């Protein structure tokens, strides 16, 4: 071994030692251990509270069933589990070495060639941030729709209007903002309550529906493909696959709270993988029970909250179905709460890296509240603006929240592409890291993540049905264009001369 090789090995060993001591310290990031108040169970609970896979399926079940019948939903969940297990494993490897609030955009900055690391990581960071804003808007409007579905059912002359949803939406946004600002730091265990509640509700709903529903045939559930979209079968399945994929929206949540975790290099990877497994078991079990319980599919598609109608069909009881819906609404409140917390830490990380206008404020942690106050305010402000878009055009709003999955998978694929470009070598993936995949499995997981990004970017932008009309058009491409314009404007006006993502020059990057 020549002198150069010795120096490279020494740099690798030094870098690996820094991982064991806490990579955030080498990056100059959050090292105040008083802020690390999330233990292993809470991190798993928080991660699952965000994804809440069976609740995500419940809120969008009719969409998938309309695009191919139960076959799209059930086999789509299996496919989504395989794909997002690969995504989680890819992120877990990197998080076990680089546990920072920036998550995937910090991974991109570290892995990219020095010449391009600023632009690539900036793009990844803005894509991830907008995906979290869209997810927050989606969860908040879902809460409003659930709340107003109850009086709409019991009072036939009441028809919720867009401004009704808007007011409830903004009230939920404001209430949980105040909770995150002043109460959440004192009650980190609230995520544990949400986790237990959602699992208990899953068992209660699933068992009750199986006990009282008039079962559809297994042939209908497992083999019947009913496309109402006008697309060929393959395209119908892939466009409908967005519903199963949505059950993993926000899977990167633990990445952005790594600096609040007591042992991030071990806990964050476990939380990622646990979320994928628990999500699959609950979502698949719930979906099977619901597909066997469907009595009249067409009646579900004509309602604002199809799962509420399905529960009335399955149980034959308005009281039981209303109880389930109210409980599910409480679960979604936990989702919104966790999303606000996580999104604010991602925005805070971008501000700390000087990537946003007014970064001198956004990138600060409040000294007494010990929360990223400006990150929370920016996130709540963006969700407020999204609510105004809903009031002006529900189509534009739906396109925005539908962009969640596309933006998210693109932000995951970027560090995977760069990791493969680096050849998954030991100078970027030290052999003795806390979470390690065999090389063949690591390559496979990274490639699956990249392939999934290509598929989702293409097919999740397709119109929902043929022939295409203004109401059926998928405006996600337009939303992505607007996001690109806003990100570009922020780059030109601010980040181009100020943003500089983290680098590990000591690891031999060029």
From TrEMBL:
Membrane spanning residue stretches: 43-67, 73-98, 119-143, 163-182, 194-213, 233-251, 271-294, 314-336, 371-393, 399-420, 440-461, 473-493
Membrane topology designation: Multi-pass membrane protein
Alphabetized UniProt keyword annotations: Membrane, Transmembrane, Transmembrane helix, Transport
Signal peptide extent: none
GO MF annotation: an example: transmembrane transporter activity
Keyword DNA-binding on entry: no
Localization of this protein: Membrane
GO CC aspect terms: membrane
InterPro entries linked to this entry: AA/rel_permease1
Pfam families xrefs: AA_permease_2 (PF13520)
Name of the protein in its database record: Amino acid permease/ SLC12A domain-containing protein
Annotated source species: Hortaea werneckii EXF-2000
């Amino acid at each position: 071994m020549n002198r150069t090789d010795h120096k490279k090995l020494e740099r690798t060993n030094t870098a690996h030692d820094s991982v064991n001591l806490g990579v955030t310290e080498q990056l100059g990031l959050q090292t105040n251990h008083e802020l690390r108040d999330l233990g292993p169970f809470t991190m798993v609970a928080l991660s699952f509270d965000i994804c809440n896979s069976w609740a995500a399926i419940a809120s969008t079940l009719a969409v998938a069933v309309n695009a191919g019948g139960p076959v799209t939903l059930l086999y789509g969940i299996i496919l989504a589990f395989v794909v997002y297990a690969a995504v989680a494993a890819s992120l877990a490897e990197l998080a076990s070495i680089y546990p920072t609030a920036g998550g995937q955009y910090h991974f991109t900055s570290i892995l990219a060639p020095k010449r391009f690391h600023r632009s690539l990581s900036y793009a990844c960071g803005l894509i991830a941030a907008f995906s979290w804003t869209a997810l927050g808007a989606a969860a908040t409007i879902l809460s409003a729709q659930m709340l107003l579905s109850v009086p709409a059912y019991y009072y036939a002359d009441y028809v919720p209007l867009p401004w009704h949803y808007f007011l409830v939406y903004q009230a939920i946004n404001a209430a949980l903002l105040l909770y995150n600002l002043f109460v959440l730091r004192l009650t980190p265990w609230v995520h544990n309550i949400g986790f237990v509640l959602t699992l208990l509700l899953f068992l209660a709903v699933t068992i009750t529906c199986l006990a009282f529903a008039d079962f559809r045939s297994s042939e209908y559930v497992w083999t019947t493909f009913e496309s109402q979209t006008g697309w060929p079968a393959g395209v119908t399945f892939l466009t409908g696959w967005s519903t199963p994929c949505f059950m993993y929206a926000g899977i990167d949540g633990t990445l952005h709270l790594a600096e609040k975790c007591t042992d991030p290099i071990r806990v964050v990877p476990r939380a990622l993988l646990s979320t994928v497994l628990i999500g699959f078991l609950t979502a698949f079990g719930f979906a099977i029970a619901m597909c066997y319980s469907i009595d009249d599919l067409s009646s579900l598609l004509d309602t604002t909250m199809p799962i509420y109608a399905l529960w009335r069909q399955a149980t034959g009881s308005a009281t039981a179905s209303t109880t389930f819906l109210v409980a599910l609404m409480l679960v979604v409140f936990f989702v919104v709460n966790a999303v606000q917390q996580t999104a604010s830490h991602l925005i805070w990380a971008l501000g700390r890296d000087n990537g946003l206008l007014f970064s001198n404020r956004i990138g600060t942690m409040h000294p007494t509240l010990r929360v990223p106050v400006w990150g929370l305010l920016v996130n709540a402000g963006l969700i407020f603006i999204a609510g105004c878009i809903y009031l002006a055009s529900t189509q534009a709003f739906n396109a925005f929240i539908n962009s969640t999955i596309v933006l998210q998978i693109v932000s995951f694929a970027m560090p995977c592409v760069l990791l493969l470009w680096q050849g998954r070598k030991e100078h970027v993936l030290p052999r003795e890291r806390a979470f390690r995949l065999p090389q063949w499995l690591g390559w496979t997981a990274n490639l699956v993540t990249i392939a999934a990004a290509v598929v989702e970017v293409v097919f999740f932008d397709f119109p929902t049905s043929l022939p295409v009309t203004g109401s059926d058009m998928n405006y996600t491409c337009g939303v992505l264009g607007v996001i690109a314009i806003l990100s570009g404007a922020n780059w030109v006006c601010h980040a181009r001369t100020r943003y500089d993502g983290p680098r590990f020059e000591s690891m031999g990057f060029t």
